[in-house]
Amino acid sequence: MILPAPLTGVIPPVCTPLTPDREVDAPSLLRLVDHLVEAGVDALFVLGSSSEAAFLTDGQRRLVVETVVAHVGGQLPVLAGAIDMTTPRVLDHVRAVTAAGAAAVVVTAPFYARTHPAEIARHFRLVAADSPVPVVAYDIPAAVHTKLPTDVVLELAADRTICALKDSSGDLAAFRSVVSGARARPSLTGFGVLTGSEVVVDAAMAVGADGVVPGLANVDPHGYVRLHDLCRAADRDAARAEQERLCALFGMVGVGDPTRMGPSSSALGAFKAALHLRGIIACPATAAPQIPLSEAEVERVGKYLAAAGLL
Amino acid sequence: MILPAPLTGVIPPVCTPLTPDREVDAPSLLRLVDHLVEAGVDALFVLGSSSEAAFLTDGQRRLVVETVVAHVGGQLPVLAGAIDMTTPRVLDHVRAVTAAGAAAVVVTAPFYARTHPAEIARHFRLVAADSPVPVVAYDIPAAVHTKLPTDVVLELAADRTICALKDSSGDLAAFRSVVSGARARPSLTGFGVLTGSEVVVDAAMAVGADGVVPGLANVDPHGYVRLHDLCRAADRDAARAEQERLCALFGMVGVGDPTRMGPSSSALGAFKAALHLRGIIACPATAAPQIPLSEAEVERVGKYLAAAGLL
Amino acid sequence: MILPAPLTGVIPPVCTPLTPDREVDAPSLLRLVDHLVEAGVDALFVLGSSSEAAFLTDGQRRLVVETVVAHVGGQLPVLAGAIDMTTPRVLDHVRAVTAAGAAAVVVTAPFYARTHPAEIARHFRLVAADSPVPVVAYDIPAAVHTKLPTDVVLELAADRTICALKDSSGDLAAFRSVVSGARARPSLTGFGVLTGSEVVVDAAMAVGADGVVPGLANVDPHGYVRLHDLCRAADRDAARAEQERLCALFGMVGVGDPTRMGPSSSALGAFKAALHLRGIIACPATAAPQIPLSEAEVERVGKYLAAAGLL
Amino acid sequence: MILPAPLTGVIPPVCTPLTPDREVDAPSLLRLVDHLVEAGVDALFVLGSSSEAAFLTDGQRRLVVETVVAHVGGQLPVLAGAIDMTTPRVLDHVRAVTAAGAAAVVVTAPFYARTHPAEIARHFRLVAADSPVPVVAYDIPAAVHTKLPTDVVLELAADRTICALKDSSGDLAAFRSVVSGARARPSLTGFGVLTGSEVVVDAAMAVGADGVVPGLANVDPHGYVRLHDLCRAADRDAARAEQERLCALFGMVGVGDPTRMGPSSSALGAFKAALHLRGIIACPATAAPQIPLSEAEVERVGKYLAAAGLL
């Protein structure tokens, strides 16, 4: 499947439903994919942070890509994360996910090893040189503990090392500097700038985002498709109202008791609880060592869904 | 090979020599192992940070463990890192390295995913439950961006989840609190507290360390064996003199130009350049995306060796 | 001067012109104030970060407030920073700046001392209890190394401890959560939410900001007044165009060589160089220990001004 | 009072007793000073972090220095902190504390403003140029969020900008590199290297510290004098035993409930509760916005004292 240039639209980072014994639940995964595709999303991103890629074994990762690609066939592009510490390990994932049919790979800066910007640039160049499909740079400082510098992103975009940026940094000023830099240079035509935010999609679109990759789109894909369309139509007041409804829904990520669990257990636990409550996946389990939500916490997820008109 | 309890002595984190095309150079690896064993080290730790574990593919990791275990046979224990982001991925490495003969696995806190202390404890418990060999906790905040809390370490030690701590945090106060906590509880008899420092080994031994895991021991294992023995013999002035000689040698980790490369390229590059200059390994290459040292930088490594009487 | 509730509009954080021997240059300060007032700004904020409050002695701080208040009389409100480490020291500044005529005080979370959110809340409560004028909370994690939590801000707003938030965190998602929280609660009517950003003012206004406090408004107050008015008029495409012009101008903050100086020397140096080049202040000096821009760097500031049509 | 070169021995950072209404309690302060002097300490350090300098107003700071200097007369040197954000503000404190009789000033890197190493060096040079007494560099990254680089410290020591380093970084490896660097250069003869640690004093002395500045010495000055003398006498096993007793006592800093207060409220609250329980100061109050210890927490402080043989 050829990737559009630039990447645009709503591209959910697909959750990975698990069985109670923490294996990939393929039937639930396919129901989730159908739920997203039917809502009108433009592409799918598997093996990202919302997919619990950091928690999936190589076997599970492969199964996810194969399952999703086989199911959506050529209907829409499937991007796959190749999330690992350094170049050689990332390249192994690139080989695996492209063999399984991924249309693009999504790659972060190196982590665990501490790196210089020159090493980050080299990392992307080496990955791109060996990847049979386009590379999307994934800027996620909360996970990898470095921020992709704007000048590095623009340099890698200019020489076609990367075809797009997925920005989960939460830094709209830096996001805008990439958008402006990309627009100012003819050599960057076709470079896609995507936001990973759930809650400032309208703002990111207003400053020039090409597309959006919100984890919450698992729970409410229709909402994000609507929001994206309203932004495209420049109906900004309606966009803002829809965004604010989704912001309220996003409050669910805070249901987990912070004295008992980390933000990932709470947020991914809430997304999965919501998908379970909505009848889309069979089991809300998250991968180890995440801590399950309590019954009361799940109940609060239900209230968020009800308030947003989703239950 | 049964692990001593507690783990003690000098346990070098073995560098992984690579060929010019970045494959594991098994003959050089064996020469390096011989060099370490002949110097009188007590155990070997493969696939740690100094081994570039973060940069090695799964295939390369397996090859390293198999090669080293086959070579040293039952002479001394081989500990192996099982370095990955979360429990399920770590467990895959545990299976791989124990199948290859590792006598213990060395495991960090989860990374990439942000975790709560309760999740860190759960991670170690789940890994230990499924590991056929003892688990060593590896505290390396510079890499994983959390510090193992003293109370978590002592709790995991008390219920025999972990058999030892390798502390690369640089925080001697916290190190001492683990040592004191371990000594104060009969249930922790046999728990080993190891320092990952190159430069305060004498101090760590003086506060009660059981053993030392210094990356620089690749370059000068005789020095660290001597230092360890002097510390054991409570000949603290001689220990301090030897330590200071090793501190001066350790200056080599700063040869790399910080405007061109990160600390890992510089430090591991220097260790490998030193091993190459000493004729132990065939090629000083480090794994991608690390940046090679320049000729002038390698020359400075040579000067450090000469000043320490090693060239 | 009674403060409007909520605080709205363009409120420049007024630079503090210095003489070559680093004393407050009152005539230049008054020319700068006139330049801002004539451009139509809504209030003035002295002794903020852009004012180099961290570098001014108590005597200089007092002189700045007295000079500006005496000059603008009752024309428009003068807010003054009371920037110091903890409650007792902040209260001394509150007394000084209100004696000098400040209409409101702007207060950060404690710094140097490490604090718990409960201590941050207590700090604002104690300051407000003793302040004769309203208190604006100043969220500037880059300086104080904690972020004001949304729930703390809303709680302090609800009990009238603070009358407004100046958010210089760069985190638009958190900013929006304050805006939404404030709008959802009748008890918060009149609470002002101000952005300290230079480069996402249009986005902040679109999500509901009441006003803007951009350091760059020293250099181009007309631009920010225009931008603010376009945002108010919901002419978002024109707002975006004006914002992008200002973003390009803001590039000047990067003129300083990062191998020679920190971000403050570069950014404040550029603002002052621009004010000097525009003939508004007599001397571009910044306070010690900041490093002056080189001639070539000042020349680049001139090019930014020229490109923005300001020279 | 002439300062010895190098500074050596036990130099307690003197707590500042407060009355219930948070004014300086001069009689208690003098009792505390007597308690320290009688125990045999070598100098006194007022207005440091343990003195709550960050919480004291300028008037209170002045009163503290005047009170202590007048009392100890020429018996032993009184060092005073000049803790503030930047050079001009620090210089105002330098003038105040030297007018009040301080024999040396203790100065941190700039904070609040973000600074480059070149600006840090310039800061110390400008302060030293205007200070009538020697300058001690205070390395306290937990408060100022930068670590003084070893090369900057050695450079400032070499040109006599600073006469000593007080290292509260907790990084013994960096501490040792300063000690070794100082010993290796004849130009640094007389430069003092002091540790701010409570719990690794024996280790710091073993690597070459000239003196120690432990906050806990307020509570048990005899212990630290004994420990220092044992270290000087190279009776390292006895030193270690005394250090371990003091480490156990230091556990008191954790009595405060971390869900209710920050580390400063807990640690300084515990020191003052201990001084109150020992009958040395009249009131255990800490400055705002710190949170008082509960009765149960104070009771736990008492248990620490009892266990250490101090009650």
From TrEMBL, chains A, B, C, D:
The keyword Lyase is assigned to this record: yes
Keyword DNA damage among record annotations: no
Matching PROSITE patterns: DHDPS_2
Gene Ontology MF terms in the entry: 4-hydroxy-tetrahydrodipicolinate synthase activity
One of the GO BP terms on file: small molecule metabolic process
SMART domains: DHDPS
Keywords: Lyase, Schiff base
Record Gene3D superfamilies: Aldolase class I (3.20.20.70)
Entry similarity comment: Belongs to the DapA family.
Protein name as it appears in the record: Dihydrodipicolinate synthase
